[in-house]
Amino acid sequence: MTNDFAHHPVDPTSAASLAASGFQYDLVDTTDRAAFEAWFQADSRGFHGPAMSKEQIDSGFAGITYRRTVGVWDDRLVAPEVPVATVSSWTEQVTVPGNRSIDAWAISSVTVSPTHRRRGIARALLEGELRSAVDMGLPMATLTVSESTIYGRFGFGQAVFAADLTIDTTRATIPVRERRGVLQHVAPSVFVAEAPTVFERIRLSTPGQINVWPLRWEQIAGTAPGDEEYTKNTRVVRFDDEDGTPRGFVVYRVTGGGLDFTNHKLTVDYLLAETPEAYEALWRYVLEVDLVREVKAELRSVDEPLLWLLSDMRAARVSPIDHLWLRILDVPASLNARSYSSAGMIAFEVSDELGFANGRYVLETDDQGMPTASRVENLPEGVPAVSLSVNELSSLYLGGVSASSLIAAGRIGELNPGAGAAIERIFHSPTTPWLSVWF
Ligand SMILES: CC(C)(COP(=O)(O)OP(=O)(O)OC[C@H]1O[C@@H](n2cnc3c(N)ncnc32)[C@H](O)[C@@H]1OP(=O)(O)O)[C@@H](O)C(=O)NCCC(=O)NCCS
């Protein structure tokens, strides 16, 4: 992973506003272990996590210091070296429709100490991140969120949803068609070594997926230090096709049981499948493990094919939640980065309280769905047009959010009849967007 962005200086406007309140806003020197440790402990405390152990700090030091690591300090405190606010960010590739990706600014570790809350520190950090991203020429910012009420004010919109599945194994069966390939238990370290290669082969086929960093694979496999209970219980099963090539993995834990030994719960922590055979074999495996009453899987696609494999679809309860939020910063660059479902022309009047995306734009797509998007002075006559804020444009961007729903909710205004249907037709993604990790 390249880290040219990691040393990009903090935004001077936010530095000035925080300095006016007596705070220092700066990059953390991530070659300095003590400075990183103070930042890392503050980040964990901000999310109500435990004090980080030496092993966790070593792992973070090796695994996430490639990022641009930013803190806010208050030198009036007894421990002035511990930041009162944290954020980290890096360039990531977000898959967009058309088997391609867009470079985006990933923002994570946003915390403000409860002792310093509601004094505008998070606002300064977020606006600073967005201005820095623009400075670096990035067309878009992204994040996953702890609360869905925080980021709309900064122009982010929900673009990818994820589903939690709860499956009653007494009702859930997948009819056997043909069993091919081989299932086997492998060590979690095998998942860490091989899953990234399998994932990379399919990453560009699902809009919303990102390039996952190595420490995240270790956390999924339970090989990273931190949660001993998780590590102890994690099992991994791999599916190899008939040629012996690994095509998928399921990482899971079986817990509970109690006196009634048939009452265990199986939690799917990650299921990766490159082929339909791998997908079916791994889900069937999970549903057929003996002594398990319930299977839980978080962060699955809201259009999970599993539901259509089950002989009784009602065996699974599905609860969707917003997951990936996007924030377009450069409208033409973002629109030009993806391909579209049909030929046409559509115009947008975009409002953006922070000013980055304000303006009028036209998107024209050809028969192959290839775009030409540009800023215009005036909306062209006779072209379907909508007015919307940058939040809604960001929500629509990956083609997984329905323009007609946003129109019905009063979040998009049609400037001429049929504009919503035109967006729907042009923006629609044949593959439902999905992001399988947090960041
Ligand atoms: C969320 C958090 C970062 C906010 O920090 P903060 O410095 O208190 O926020 P600010 O004072 O800068 O507030 C910025 C704006 O967000 C709003 N806001 C702050 N926290 C909010 C919350 N939890 N829910 C909804 N709105 C919130 C403020 O009202 C303010 O609105 P305005 O500027 O439009 O008037 C902080 O409370 C925190 O660290 N929480 C725990 C960790 C967390 O959830 N982080 C987010 C990770 S995705």
UniProtKB/TrEMBL annotation:
GO terms for molecular function: aminoglycoside N-acetyltransferase activity. Residues 23-177 form the N-acetyltransferase domain. Keywords: Acyltransferase, Transferase. GO terms for biological process: aminoglycoside antibiotic catabolic process. Acetyl-CoA binds at V110, T111, V112, R118, R119, G120, I121, A122, R123, S146, E147. The active site is at Y151, F439. CDD domains: NAT_SF. Homohexamer; trimer of dimers. NCBIfam families: PRK01346.1-4. Belongs to the acetyltransferase Eis family. This is Putative acetyltransferase. It comes from Salinibacterium amurskyense. The lineage of its organism: Bacteria, Bacillati, Actinomycetota, Actinomycetes, Micrococcales.
